[in-house]
C-alpha cells in the first residue's frame, strides 16, 4: 500500500511550495497584535505541514542585554539604537541559516520594522539569498483596541517581569510614543515591495504585488483573522450503535445512552456559558449520529451540515472492527500503527488527507464568532491539533472521550480549554498502538481532550 508521504515540492497536503522560501516581515507599532498574528500564522502553516518559524527580534535583544532602561527606546539614545540593530541582524542571520541548512519554507520576522530603511535592508538581505519577502503591516488607530492589547499582552511581557502592571503599562506607552516619532507606514514610495496592509484588525486590507501561490495562501489566511473574544465548542456525537459494537465508520444511529447525551447537550452548553448568554451557530457533519446529537439544541441557533466534517473515510475497512481489520489486512493494520498520520486506508483517507479537507473549516472558524461543532473522533483530533499545536505524531492518538463538551477560547498567547462532562456512561473508542482491542482506560501518558 502506498502511503501519502510529504514531498518538498507539494508538502503532501497539496500545497505547491516548490523551492519557494518566504520571509514574512511584520511591520507595525508596538501593541498592534503583530506577535499574535505571527504566532497564528506559524501554527496554521505547521498544521498544513509547511515548515514555519517565528524569529522574534525582541527575544534576541533580551538575550544580549539586561532589562531596558527607561530611555532605551528614546530615538536619541544611540546605544539603544545600536543594541536594537544588533538584535535585528542576529535574528536575520539566524533566519538565513535556518533557510539554508534546515530548508525552512516560511520565516516570520517579528519586530516593529518601523522605518523604510530597515525594511529596505531586510529586503536586500533576503533578495541576495533568493528569499522572497512579504511585508505584513498591522496598522491600528483604535485606542480601545490598543489599550486592551497593552493590558492583556504587554504587562505580561518578559521586559516587565515582576513589575507593577500600572508602571509597566505606563512605560510601554512611552515606548510606543518613541516609536511613533520615527514610524513610517508602508506607502507609495515602497510599491516594489510585496505587502499586505491590515487596517484596524481586518476592517480594511491593501494587498500589493503578491508573487505566487504560497504568498497568496498566507495573505488569505491573515485577511480572515479577527481578534474579537469568542469561543469554539467541540463535542463528539453521542455514543452510536457502531461504537457499542466496536465497528468503525458507517452511518449508525445513536445508542440509548447516545440519545441521553443528545437530550443533555443543551443543558451542558448552557452550563458552559457561565451566566452569560451567547449567540451560537451549530455545525455538524452530514452523518446521522451528529445530526441526531444536535437536534435538541435551541431552534433559534443556526445549524449547518458540512460534508467536510464527516468522519475519516476508512475505505474497504468501513463497518469493520479493529480485530477484523487486523485479521483481514494485517499489513495495513501494522502500517497504520507505524505511521498513523500518513497511513491512507485502501479506498479511503489518512489523517493528512483529513487536514486538507478541514482547511476551509479552519478558515471559516477564523472568520466566525461562537461556533459549536458536533463531529467525529478523527475530525476532532485534527481540529484540536490546530488550536492546541499538537504535532502530527501525537494527534491521531489523542483520547477523545464520548459524552463531554470542550470549550476552547483563543487568547493572545495560546488557547484556554474548559471541559464539561455529561456524566453519562459510554464505551471507550480509544485503541492503543499495537493493540487490536479498544481500551476502557487509555494509558497514563495518553493525552486526553477532556483533561
Ligand atoms: O483513527 P482511529 O483511532 O481509528 O479513530 C477513528 C475512528 O473513530 C470512530 C469510532 O471508532 O469514530 P466515530 O465514533 O465518529 O464513528 C470511527 O468511526 C473512526 O474510524
UniProtKB/TrEMBL annotation:
Pfam family, one: His_Phos_1
An MF annotation (GO) of this entry: ATP binding
Keywords (A to Z) from UniProt: ATP-binding, Hydrolase, Nucleotide-binding
The 6-phosphofructo-2-kinase domain, residue ranges: 17-228
GO terms of biological process kind: fructose 2,6-bisphosphate metabolic process; fructose metabolic process; glucose metabolic process
Binding site for substrate: 236-243, 289
Alphabetical list of SUPFAM superfamilies matching this protein: P-loop containing nucleoside triphosphate hydrolases, Phosphoglycerate mutase-like
Family per similarity comment: In the C-terminal section; belongs to the phosphoglycerate mutase family.
Protein name stated in the entry: fructose-2,6-bisphosphate 2-phosphatase
Organism: Mollisia scopiformis (Conifer needle endophyte fungus)
Amino acid at each position: 500500500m502506498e502511503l501519502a508521504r510529504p514531498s518538498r515540492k507539494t508538502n503532501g497536503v497539496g500545497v505547491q511550495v516548490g523551492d519557494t522560501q518566504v520571509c514574512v516581515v511584520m511591520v507595525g507599532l508596538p501593541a498592534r497584535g503583530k506577535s499574535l498574528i505571527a504566532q497564528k500564522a506559524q501554527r496554521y502553516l505547521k498544521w498544513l505541514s509547511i515548515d514555519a518559524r517565528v524569529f522574534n527580534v525582541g527575544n534576541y535583544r533580551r538575550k544580549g542585554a539586561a532589562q531596558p532602561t527607561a530611555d532605551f527606546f528614546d530615538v536619541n539614545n544611540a546605544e539603544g539604537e545600536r543594541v536594537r540593530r544588533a538584535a535585528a541582524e542576529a535574528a536575520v542571520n539566524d533566519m538565513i541559516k535556518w533557510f539554508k541548512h534546515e530548508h525552512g519554507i516560511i520565516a516570520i520576522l517579528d519586530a516593529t520594522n518601523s522605518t523604510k530603511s530597515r525594511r529596505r535592508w531586510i529586503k536586500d538581505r533576503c533578495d541576495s539569498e533568493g528569499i522572497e519577502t512579504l511585508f505584513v503591516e498591522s496598522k491600528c488607530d483604535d485606542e480601545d483596541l490598543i489599550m486592551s492589547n497593552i493590558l492583556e499582552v504587554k504587562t505580561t511581557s518578559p521586559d516587565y517581569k515582576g513589575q507593577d502592571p500600572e508602571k509597566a503599562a505606563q512605560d510601554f506607552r512611552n515606548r510606543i510614543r518613541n516609536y511613533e516619532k520615527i514610524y513610517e507606514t508602508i506607502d507609495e514610495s515602497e510599491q516594489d515591495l510585496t505587502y499586505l496592509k491590515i487596517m484596524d484588525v481586518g476592517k480594511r486590507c491593501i494587498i500589493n504585488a503578491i508573487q505566487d501561490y504560497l504568498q497568496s495562501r498566507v495573505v488569505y489566511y491573515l485577511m480572515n483573522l479577527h481578534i474579537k473574544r469568542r469561543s469554539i465548542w467541540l463535542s463528539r456525537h453521542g455514543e452510536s450503535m457502531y461504537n457499542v459494537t466496536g465497528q468503525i465508520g458507517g452511518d449508525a444511529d445513536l445508542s440509548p445512552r447516545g440519545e441521553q447525551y443528545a437530550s443533555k447537550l443543551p443543558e451542558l452548553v448552557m452550563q458552559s456559558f457561565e451566566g452569560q448568554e451567547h449567540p451560537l451557530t451549530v455545525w455538524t457533519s452530514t452523518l446521522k449520529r451528529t445530526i441526531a446529537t444536535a437536534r435538541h439544541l435551541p431552534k433559534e441557533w443556526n445549524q449547518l451540515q458540512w460534508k467536510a466534517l464527516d468522519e475519516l473515510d476508512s475505505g474497504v475497512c468501513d463497518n469493520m472492527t479493529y480485530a477484523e481489520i487486523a485479521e483481514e489486512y494485517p499489513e495495513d493494520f501494522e502500517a497504520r500503527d507505524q505511521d498513523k498520520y500518513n497511513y491512507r486506508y485502501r479506498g479511503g483517507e489518512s489523517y493528512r488527507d483529513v487536514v486538507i479537507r478541514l482547511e476551509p473549516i479552519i478558515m471559516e472558524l477564523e472568520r466566525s464568532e461562537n461556533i459549536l461543532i458536533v463531529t467525529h473522533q478523527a475530525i476532532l483530533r485534527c481540529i484540536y491539533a490546530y488550536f492546541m499545536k499538537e504535532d502530527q505524531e501525537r494527534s491521531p492518538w489523542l483520547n477523545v472521550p464520548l459524552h463531554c463538551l470542550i470549550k476552547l477560547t483563543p487568547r493572545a498567547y495560546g488557547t484556554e480549554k474548559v471541559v464539561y462532562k455529561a456524566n453519562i456512561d459510554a464505551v471507550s473508542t480509544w485503541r492503543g498502538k499495537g493493540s487490536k482491542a479498544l481500551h476502557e482506560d487509555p494509558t497514563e501518558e495518553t493525552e486526553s481532550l477532556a483533561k
